[in-house]
Specification:
Chain A: This is Phosphate transport system permease protein PstA. Chain A: It is found in: Cell membrane. The complex is a heterodimer of chains A (517) and B (358). Chain A has 18 helices and 6 strands. Chain A is globular. In chain A, a hairpin with a 6-residue loop joins strand 5 and strand 6. Chain A is an all-alpha fold. In chain A, 68% of the residues lie in helices and 3% in strands. Chain B has 358 residues and is mostly helical. Chain B folds into 2 domains: 96 residues, no CATH class; 241 residues, MetI-like fold (Orthogonal Bundle), CATH 1.10.3720.10. Chain B contains 15 helices and 2 strands. The model of chain B has no long low-confidence stretch (mean pLDDT 84). Classes of the chains: A mainly alpha (517), B mainly alpha (358). At the A-B interface, strand 4, helix 8, helix 10, helix 11 and helix 12 of A face helix 4, helix 6, helix 7, helix 8 and helix 9 of B.
């Protein structure tokens, strides 16, 4: 075994060692990606690469990678290459691989021998414990490569020999589900690829603390990459599905003007292109109402909590309350609106009730972000203003609030993005007709009357649609020819919400740059 | 209480130094008007607008003549309003849920045999299947959002180079913004069919899809809160460790993560809260069967979650049935509020500890 003090030299032999390890990492990342494309049915069992069917290719890669890992592990152990491997692998890695052992052992038992749930969990536990303790006391160069390499050989062998082929399936007696190879193989491949990539990354840096850092960073980096991939895929998918509907019958170009019927028409019989105009107008009014309600109250509360109140029990209670409000589920807000607001606003679902409920949801976010940005205004500003002899309110109005405004605006925009997509409360307090023909006309409906409450607005007290509700209506109406309508709505909703987010984030970056100039 | 005493008290509260009686009177009138309109609104009176107009007039007059005091009073009122909303939610949920709880007694939370949700004839309301459904989806979701979220937070705050962080951080934030109904629509149209085709499921919709989707939705919450916690670990602690010759990863593993542990667990708790409260994805994906899965660990079957129960049945419910839905809301609300308070407590303790350490 190599000693801890040994350092790696730039000898050609080490070069070879590195190449094997990097090859293992590269191959496993390829199978990782192919696993995902297979899961998403972009590649299938009939996809052939270099004359091999996909599953055989997976198998061959795993055999190669497994051998590579085993060889490099042994080579380091016998001292053929100088590495910085530790004496013991350690309990952390042991536990991680033990969990893998538990899963593999348990699943293998129930699949191969048809043992029930309790039995296979017990076997899995035993396997897991053996792996954990075994790996923990092995020298690091063996502990990090052997279990993974053996697993690679086993899975590769199953795939190459055709023991698990495209027609393979497993039907657990206690579940209704049947697991077919086109799902199982890619899932197992993805998981194993990650393990092999991790192990290969450790080998590539010659084990030791550098090796462990390399392995961990590889996984963490892949995770971050995955999150971005999910975001992009989601957006692209919705765009691809929704764009045809959005542009149906649309005309723009020189001399034509711009007309997009999907955005400017309601749903009417005998109309060539139906659209979601009423829902768009509904969402706009809901957002305006919520902002008008939440922003003044929210900023007011934040000013009081930060500038006037003494930090103590009262502020602590309000802070806890605000955070609790922030995490209250949207459906609970919906229930509250249903019980409290709807009976008081003419006993029917109404835009006004929706504005109030969404405003209540927006309020905690405004309080929290406003407090943060008011707190971050330096005390020097306040002192300088006070030294001019003005009172506290004038300082707040002319110095503190303007300085805090960028943060407040950003917070409000991001919050609006969130409530614009809320469905559950709208469902309970605002929704009416699933496919309305006309948009509510708020501005045209104000009337003054002689009896209280003196100002009336029929449109505010009527049910309305909104973008998220429109999408829900498509789902409950049953899928069929309307599915395209749903995708179009989803795209518009996504554009609205992400638009708010983009503006919010861009303004934050802009203000921060300006501050640092 | 005499009028002078009232004046004294109001003066104290509003912090008016000079004995300006007109300000005190103004405050009293405004407060009375606001109280009046609140009471009128609560009892559903059409005359709510009258005292409200009085209040607005008082505020207008106050802002004109005594701006500083009025502004302070208004900010105080805003603070009270924020707290009052939580109180109102609590009160109204419990009032509405009471009839069902009185009728079913404890059986509402313990009945596990026979038919557990009958809305016509001999009515039975047991929330056990929904609580189980919520528990299963939440556990599945956190298996995804917990580890991946913490790893994402580590990447953003400790590992990523500045340029990469500038991309990943907004991307995660944007991911949080994708509306749940969009996830639900994708789950409903794509994932449900996919599962039925590839796993031979007998019915559309299953807990495992809901868990997966909700996990994806809780992920950004965990990332952002955990990232805050990790980056609040003082730089001096990290550099102390690095100066001893450890690698970055050793410092993260042995110094940063343990120091941020409570903050990270608070983040996971908040993620749990998000997962429990997630409504639309569960509503459109699940097939709405108010039964316990058989066997209990069958995540490919259909059951119901607390949120999807409310969203799918509120339209057809009346009297006791509706009240039972409110009881589901109470369970949700209490659970999530407890989680929120617990995570805040943990976070506060962490801040105190870190301040003590540096």
């Amino acid at each position: 075994m190599s000693e801890q003090t040994a350092t790696r030299t730039a000898a050609p032999a080490v070069d070879l060692f590195d190449r094997i390890a990097l090859g293992v990492v590269g191959l496993s990342i390829v199978t990782f990606l192919l696993g995902w494309t297979t899961l998403f049915e972009r590649t299938g069992t009939d996809t052939a690469v270099a004359g091999l069917s996909l599953f055989t290719l997976f198998g061959a890669v795993f055999l190669l990678a497994g051998i590579g890992l085993l060889v490099s592990g042994i080579a380091s152990y016998v001292g053929a290459f100088e590495t910085t491997a530790d004496r013991y692998t350690g309990i952390g890695t042991g536990l991680g691989l033990g969990i893998v052992g538990f899963a593999v052992g348990g699943l293998a038992t129930t699949i191969l021998f048809g043992v029930g749930a309790t039995g296979s969990v017990l076997v899995g536990l035993v396997v897991g414990l053996v792996v954990t303790s075994g790996v923990a006391v092995l020298p690091e160069d063996l502990g990090t490569t052997f279990p993974v390499g053996l697993l690679g050989l086993a899975w590769g062998g199953l795939l190459v020999t055709g023991a698990v082929d495209a027609g393979w399936f497993w039907n657990p007696p206690s579940l209704d589900a049947t697991f077919h190879a086109p799902i199982v193989v890619p899932l197992a491949t993805i998981a194993l690829s990650l393990l092999i990539a991790w192990s290969g990354a450790i080998v590539a840096e010659g084990f030791g603390s550098q090796g462990r850092q390399n392995g961990a960073y590889l996984l963490i980096g892949l995770n971050a990459f995955g999150m971005i991939a999910v975001l992009l895929l989601l957006i692209l998918f919705v765009v691809q599905k929704g764009l045809p509907k959005l542009l149906e019958g649309a005309q723009f170009g020189p001399g034509l003007g711009i007309s997009v019927p999907f955005l400017t028409k309601g749903v009417m019989l005998g109309q060539q292109y139906n659209g979601i105009f009423p829902a768009i107008v509904g969402t706009i009014w809901l957002v305006i109402g919520a902002v008008l309600l939440a922003v003044p109250i929210g900023i007011g509360a934040a000013v009081f909590l930060t500038e006037y109140a003494e930090q103590g029990r009262f502020t602590a209670i309000i802070e806890t309350t605000t955070n609790a409000l922030w995490s209250t589920p949207s459906i609970v807000y919906g229930l509250f609106g249903y019980a409290f607001l709807v009976p008081r606003f003419g006993n029917s679902n109404s835009l006004l009730a929706g504005m109030f409920v969404l405003g209540f949801m927006l309020l905690p976010l405004v309080v929290i972000t406003s407090r943060e940005s008011i707190k971050s205004v330096p005390d020097e500003y306040r002192d300088a203003s006070a030294a001019l002899g003005v009172n506290q309110w004038q300082t707040i109005r002319s110095v503190v609030l303007p300085a805090a405004m960028p943060g407040v605006v950003t917070g409000v925009i991001l919050g609006v993005g969130r409530i614009a997509g809320e469905t559950a409360p709208i469902l309970l307090v605002t929704s009416g007709q699933p496919f309305p023909a006309r948009a509510p006309s708020i501005l045209g409906s104000f009337r003054f009357v002689a009896t209280p409450p003196f100002v009336q607005n029929e449109a505010l007290l009527q049910a309305s649609s909104a973008l998220p509700y429109q999408l829900y209506a498509v789902i409950t109406a049953g899928v069929g020819q309307e599915e395209a309508f749903g995708w179009g709505t989803a795209l518009v909703l996504l554009l609205v919400v992400l638009g708010f987010y983009a503006i919010g984030i861009a303004s934050r970056i802009y203000f921060r740059r300006k501050l640092h100039q | 209480m005499s009028t002078t005493e009232l004046h004294e008290q109001l003066k104290d509260r509003l912090g008016v130094e000079s004995a300006d009686d007109s300000v005190v009177t103004l405050g009293a009138v405004g407060a009375l008007c606001l109280l009046g309109s609140a009471v009128a609104f609560l009892i559903g009176s059409p005359f709510t607008a009258l005292p409200l107009a009085g209040f607005l007039f008082t505020v207008g007059y106050g802002l004109w003549n005594h701006q500083a005091t009025t502004a302070k009073a208004l900010t105080f009122l805003a603070t009270i309003a924020t707290g009052a909303i939580l109180a109102l939610i609590t009160v109204y949920l419990i009032i509405e849920a009471f009839p069902a709880i009185r009728e079913m007694g404890l059986a509402m939370f313990t009945k596990t045999s026979g038919r557990m949700w009958i809305t016509r004839g001999e009515e039975v309301y047991s929330l056990v299947p929904m609580m189980w459904g919520t528990l299963v989806t939440t556990v599945l979701a956190m298996l995804i959002a917990g580890p991946l979220g913490v790893a994402g937070a580590l990447f953003i705050s400790e590992i990523a180079p500045d340029a990469v962080r500038e991309i990943v951080k907004p991307a995660v934030e944007t991911l949080a913004g994708i509306p749940s109904i969009v996830y639900g629509f994708i789950g409903f149209t794509i994932l449900n069919d996919y599962m039925m085709e590839n796993l031979d499921l007998p019915s559309s919709g299953s807990l495992v899809i809901v868990g997966l989707v909700v996990g994806l939705m809780a992920l950004p919450t965990v990332v952002s809160v955990a990232e805050d916690a990790i980056s609040s670990v003082p730089e001096s602690m990290k550099s102390g460790s690095l100066a001893l010759g450890t690698t970055d990863w050793q410092t993260i593993k042995n110094i940063t993560l343990p120091a941020a542990f409570s903050g990270v667990s608070a983040a996971v708790l908040l993620g749990v809260g998000r997962a429990i409260g997630e409504t639309m994805a569960a509503t459109v994906i699940l097939g709405h069967a108010q039964v316990l899965p058989e066997p209990l660990y069958d995540v490919f079957g259909n059951t119901e979650t607390l949120t999807s129960l409310i969203a799918s049945q509120y339209g057809v419910a009346s009297s006791t049935h509706m009240s039972a839905l409110f009881a589901a809301g109470v369970v949700l609300f209490v659970t999530v509020t407890v989680l929120s308070i617990a995570s805040q407590y943990i976070e506060r303790r962490m801040q105190i500890q870190l301040q003590g350490d540096t």
